[in-house]
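Quick one:
INPUT:
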């Protein structure tokens, strides 16, 4: 982790900021996100495409990290957004992203969400089915508009990642079967007046750390484009989706230059506008979750119980995922190790962050950082066990700000109403 280091009495430092100071000032659990890391990674990704001379438009997958401050950082780097709901669409606009730089993906877009997308004249709607196509066409005609669309192709390719985050197999709910595309494309481009069909989109899955599925997926798209063009149809845009993985542990995660060269080799000669929709690769390493050790329980195993739980970071419970854990203090003896289970306070056995992990000895009151928590962390949080949502702090060079206040229990309870016709005690 190039943005993390130990600096003597400051302990663990992220892009120049002492995480201990943040934890002491704002309490735990707290999320920290570095604008600097976000920017650095955004530029690295854009550079990879520039090096290949590829006209690639980058759309950040808002689902990975939806805070407006993060979206503003990326908008400033020239990013647009990939959104999957009306809420994300409005967030992206509120954060300063231009409507024409927004792509709307998602398997269940409601009529209201499609109306919003059409009225805002966003760049592209990725259509997931023939049913959605007809619904969208009718809505757009009623609004006397023409929606720019692409077909999301289901290429029936296994992304070689966790099955819960695989999206491109035939049995997955996403996209239109690739062999149904040519006929539907022709019908749409020649007969439908509510939509302007500009091309194809594909997204195979997330946390992909091998090259083969990307290559296979894009080859399939390229051959579809050739078929469509041979049939006299127009294809001007290809959306390559997201999915680029990171090294949470010791995975050999390929860099964006791999993605850029695969895209160049498979789609580079088609003379189309290219789009990508990365989320995790940009945001995950930019964020950490800070927590404090509540107790160390010695039982059949040694359990380090921390004050962050699966309601904050659900990834380990949901996908058995591995997140690095580092103490915030500089360990006195870097070689001393214990084998512990790091667990949260939630009353479920799945509330485990690490099993049999080798860590420097930790005691009550020590603080730790859970790493690579900048993507699919805050956005998947809940208030399970009546735990208010944690605070979020953005750091940027020597600046820092609370970008989301810690929710209070009063705020949580204020959302609820007890009907006055219920008998009260
Ligand atoms: N585009 C589409 C259409 C997607 O469905 C996704 C992610 C992305 C782009 C961004 O993928 P990324 O570059 O972040 O891999 N909650 C899970 C990940 C779910 C991903 C869903 N789709 C996790 O924590 O691992």
């Amino acid at each position: 982790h190039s943005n993390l280091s130990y600096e003597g009495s400051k302990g663990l430092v992220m892009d120049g900021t002492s995480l201990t100071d943040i934890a002491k000032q704002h309490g735990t659990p707290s999320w920290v996100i570095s604008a600097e890391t976000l920017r650095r990674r955004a530029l690295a990704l854009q550079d990879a495409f520039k090096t290949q001379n590829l006209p690639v438009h980058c759309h950040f997958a808002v689902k990975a990290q939806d805070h407006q401050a993060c979206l503003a950082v990326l908008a400033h780097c020239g990013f647009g957004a990939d959104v999957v709901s009306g809420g994300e669409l409005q967030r992206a606009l509120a954060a300063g992203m231009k409507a024409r730089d927004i792509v709307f993906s998602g398997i269940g877009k409601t009529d209201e969400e499609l109306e919003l997308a059409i009225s805002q004249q966003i760049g592209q709607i990725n259509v997931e089915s023939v049913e959605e196509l007809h619904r969208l066409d009718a809505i757009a005609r009623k609004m006397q508009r023409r929606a720019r669309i692409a077909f999301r192709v289901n290429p029936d390719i296994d992304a070689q990642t966790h099955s819960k985050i695989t999206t491109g197999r035939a049995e997955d709910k996403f996209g239109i079967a690739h062999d149904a595309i040519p006929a539907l494309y022709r019908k749409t481009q020649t007969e439908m007046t509510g939509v302007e069909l500009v091309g194809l989109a594909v997204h195979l899955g997330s946390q992909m750390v091998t090259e083969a599925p990307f290559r296979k997926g894009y080859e399939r798209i390229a051959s579809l484009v050739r078929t469509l063009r041979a049939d006299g149809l127009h294809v001007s845009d290809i959306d390559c989706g997201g999915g680029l993985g990171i090294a949470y542990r010791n995975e050999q995660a390929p860099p964006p230059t791999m993605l850029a060269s695969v895209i160049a080799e498979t789609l580079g000669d088609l003379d189309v506008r290219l789009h990508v929709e990365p989320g995790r690769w940009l945001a995950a390493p930019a964020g950490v979750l800070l927590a404090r050790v509540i107790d160390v329980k010695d039982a059949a195993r040694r359990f380090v119980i921390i004050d962050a739980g699966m309601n904050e970071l659900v990834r380990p419970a949901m996908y058995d995922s591995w997140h690095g854990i580092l103490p915030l203090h500089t360990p006195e003896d870097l070689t001393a190790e214990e084998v512990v289970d790091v667990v949260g306070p939630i009353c479920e056995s799945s509330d485990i962050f690490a099993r049999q992990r080798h860590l420097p000895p930790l005691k009550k009151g020590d603080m730790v950082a859970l790493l690579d928590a900048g993507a699919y962390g805050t956005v998947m949080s809940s208030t399970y066990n009546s735990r208010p949502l944690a605070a979020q702090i953005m750091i940027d060079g020597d600046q820092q700000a609370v970008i989301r206040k810690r929710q209070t229990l009063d705020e949580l309870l204020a959302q609820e109403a007890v009907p006055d016709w219920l008998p009260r005690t």
